[in-house]
Design brief:
By secondary structure, this protein is mainly α. It is 71% helix and 0% strand. Pfam families: Sigma70_r2, Sigma70_r4_2.
């Protein structure tokens, strides 16, 4: 890795998307800053989907190797949350790959982490933003429908990405998303 680009102070003030573009040019300091900023929240999100700390650590490492190699393919902007979505897409795909590798070589992968005794930040934010009838309707959804909604709405994943993350066919994801919308509409009318 070579060091090119901006000085340390400028890199620390740069938006994540700008850091990714610098990483594409081989800037090691930009890569280190991107890692410092994003590794903690990526780790938390991965742990919510996998209870095995070793798999989470391996996936995090694979994610940043992929970021270093593929930074030139990043076309998003920070205005639309592009860099965070791009990073999460890479991480979630690496997690699915890790589950598949483990399934081929051993027993099934560990289930997603048990729900914590205190609600996750996503759930608190959702409850704060979604209360009353809407919150009640969400709580009454079947778990498999709520899981698809979480991946597609909260995590912002596409049908294909949700399919890979949950290990479901794309058609099933589409069907569950449609069923969830219909159930929500009926509950709110």
């Amino acid at each position: 890795m070579r060091e090119v680009g901006w000085g340390r102070a400028t890199i620390e003030r740069a938006e994540d998307g700008a850091l990714v573009r610098l990483v594409a040019k081989g800037d090691q300091r930009a890569f280190e800053e991107l890692y410092r900023r994003t590794a903690p929240w990526l780790t938390v999100r991965l742990r919510r989907r996998c209870a095995d700390d070793q798999i989470v650590a391996d996936v995090l490492q694979e994610t940043f190797v992929a970021v270093w190699r593929a930074a030139g393919t990043f076309t998003g902007s920070d205005v639309d949350g592009g860099s965070a979505g791009w990073l999460w897409t890479i991480a979630s795909r690496r997690l699915v790959d890790a589950f598949r590798r483990r399934a081929r070589h051993a027993a099934p992968p560990p289930a997603a982490a048990e729900p914590p005794s205190s609600p996750a930040a996503e759930e608190v934010a959702l409850e704060g933003a979604v209360s009353g009838e809407l919150g009640g309707a969400l709580n009454r959804l079947a778990p498999e429908l709520r899981q698809v909604l979480q991946a597609m709405v909260l995590d912002g994943l596409s049908v294909r990405e949700t399919s890979a993350l949950l290990g479901l066919p794309e058609g099933t994801v589409k069907t569950r998303a449609r069923r969830a919308r219909i159930a929500m509409r009926e509950a709110l009318t």
